[in-house]
Fold this protein.
Amino acid sequence: MLEIPNINSKDAKFKELVYDVKDSLFKEDNYSKKEFEHLCVCSGGTTSSCAKNGFTTLDLRKNYSKIHFYKESNLVTIGGGVIMGDLINHLQKHNRSFPIGLSKLPGAGYILTGGVSPLSRAYGLAIDNIESIKGFLGNGTFISLKKNQISKEKKLIWEAIKGAAPFFSIITEIGLLTIQSNPIKVIEGFVNLNELSEIIKLSEKFPENISLQWIYAKKIYIYIFAELKNSLEDKRTKAYFLLLEKFSGLEKKFYENFNEINFFPKDLELYELNVNNHSEVISLLGEDLKNDIPIFIKCLNEIMDNKPNNSCYVASQQLGGKTKKLNHGSSFFIHRKSTWKPWIYASWKKNDLQEKALVMDWMYKSWIKLKRFYPHIHLAQLHNHLNSHKEELTLAFGNRIDELKTLKNIFDPQSILPPL
Ligand SMILES: Cc1cc2nc3c(=O)[nH]c(=O)nc-3n(C[C@H](O)[C@H](O)[C@H](O)COP(=O)(O)OP(=O)(O)OC[C@H]3O[C@@H](n4cnc5c(N)ncnc54)[C@H](O)[C@@H]3O)c2cc1C
């Protein structure tokens, strides 16, 4: 059994688990002899695609787990099997941090698929902070790329690594910029739908150091997250937080650093790690709601009224700010105008196929309803086992999909990695 957070993958009856992954595995002879029909790759093991019935999984966690911080440059290198919690714990020893997401559990998949953090409005997406990578292409060829030393021929690979790496490569090492670890102020708590509507309106005017994340499970819980880099930000944050004092369910909290925060408190009773459930998640992208906030709230209400069981939820995180501006010679996260990343979490009692069908139908119908506000996809979860895969690819990569197909044809001709 694969000891990982995602229950679908944990329960998968995989063909082979390669735990002792070594660079020599990728040497042409060994690699072609293996005759993998399709490889699953496991880093943090938080998705339903890192192990599947009948397929081989390469588990990067054992042999690609090193973290090395370079004091002189403030850069860090991490193995392809490192989880984000270990990264920021390591960096905290040097008073540094990294824009990880809302959970410490995801692995390198978080970085390679974009990486939306509560700190992204100030520091960009995780991919905007990649300085170098090492790894193997689907055909077994070793690659090592450094941001300021990319030749013309390697430019497309470098761009595609940032957002679409899993389709044609296995990344064994990532070099990252780190950031100064600063104190964080959070306002969090339960709100009702009208309050959420007011708070979304306020948040669309937030400065870059503040971001809103909300989750609508049984009830609605919000986090307004503010990094305090200097006294100006402190002052500005106080002014915004004053506007939030009228919401009686909200509470102010102060954290010495980002590591101390655990999003999604136990009282939300989320089913994410419930061993009796299986789940799928779809992540969307779109711009500010502006005058559409009331229609969006109505739509959200309908979606939640129709959810087939208590474990399903809809949530959202705010991006924008630097994620709009930083593009670092472009990447395959193409929807740079986006300021919201909502996701739909669909979950059912495992082995209950009838309930699974109902829940997946709810997920797709909810996605259709939300498309008018959030027309794009953040491909943080690969769904090549679902019928929606093709549409998700188009909505994630837009007119760069042909370039990605070209890369795949050249560097993963046997389609060992997830198909396009
Ligand atoms: C609780 C929770 C909170 C989350 N919060 C956020 C958030 O705030 N922001 C955000 O952007 N996302 C968030 N996510 C989504 C998450 O970042 C993505 O689903 C990500 O792909 C998970 O990566 P993983 O390594 O943990 O997953 P895995 O299941 O191990 O990997 C997923 C897939 O990514 C590819 N992959 C992973 N590592 C490598 C590698 N080294 N080389 C090549 N391919 C690789 C493989 O195809 C693999 O099958 C969250 C997920 C969870 C479960």
